[in-house]
Amino acid sequence: MKGYPPTPVEARIREGNPRKHPIPEPLLVAGRPEGHELDEPPESFDAAVAVVSLHHVEPLPQSIDRLAALLQPGARLVVDEFDVDLLDERASAWWLDQNGHDKQPADHVAEMREHLYSVSHIREELAAWFDLGEPVPGAYFYRWPDRPELRDEEERLIAAGELPAVGTRFIAIRR
Fold first, then answer.
1. 79 vs 134: CA distance, rounded Å
2. Which pLDDT value is given to residue 15?
3. Which segments of 21-150 does DSSP mark as H helices, in order?
4. What does the pLDDT read at residue 33?
5. What is the Cα–Cα distance from 53 to 80, expressed in whole angstroms?
6. CA–CA distance from 118 to each of 14, 30, 40 (Å)?
7. Are strands 24-25 and 12-13 parallel, antiparallel or unpaired?
8. Which residues 6+ apart lie within 8 Å of 94 measured at CB?
9. pLDDT in tens, 8-40
10. Which of 6, 25, 81, 147 has its CB surrounded by the most CB atoms within 10 Å?
């Protein structure tokens, strides 16, 4: 394997977790200071993970180009994203209420759509370099901010059709 060797990580279990199945608490294994440019040579990595990050990246096209250059052909990119296109006033109202905000849902939706990239836009940018797997919808709000106690309720509301699944996960394979 080129690049950094994989490092085994033992997940810690959050105390007071009300779920039947433990939620692993991720540990930071290796990180880069904000704004740090990776100076590794092309094709240094055989896998990458983008977790709720690409919708914020500026500039997105150049960042995707750099990411693609760092990955070997056949490398997997795991993408776990917030899909702002699926955010509606009903979902916004639920999230605002859960987090004690008094903003109007319509204003919140407009604000989010104004400054975040949608998953469809992210997929368009990735498609130049990657074969894209089918997106799998799921819960997201419980992670924004870190509120794992909301996961069960969010999943129940999604299953009942009362909230849209604004989280999306997919695999992209570098060509």
1. 11
2. 44
3. 60-70, 89-98, 105-115, 119-126
4. 46
5. 8
6. 31, 27, 29
7. antiparallel
8. 141, 157, 163
9. 333 333 344 343 333 333 333 344 445 556 788
10. 81
At residue 116, what is the residue type? L
Taking the alpha carbons at both ends of the chain, their separation in whole angstroms is 18
Give the type of residue at 172.
Answer: A
Report whether 154 contacts 164 (CB < 8 A).
Answer: no
Q: Model-level pTM?
A: 0.79
Q: d(Cα 93, Cα 105) in Å, to the nearest integer?
A: 5
The tens digit of pLDDT for each residue in 85-137 reads: 999 999 999 999 999 999 999 999 999 999 999 999 999 999 999 999 999 99
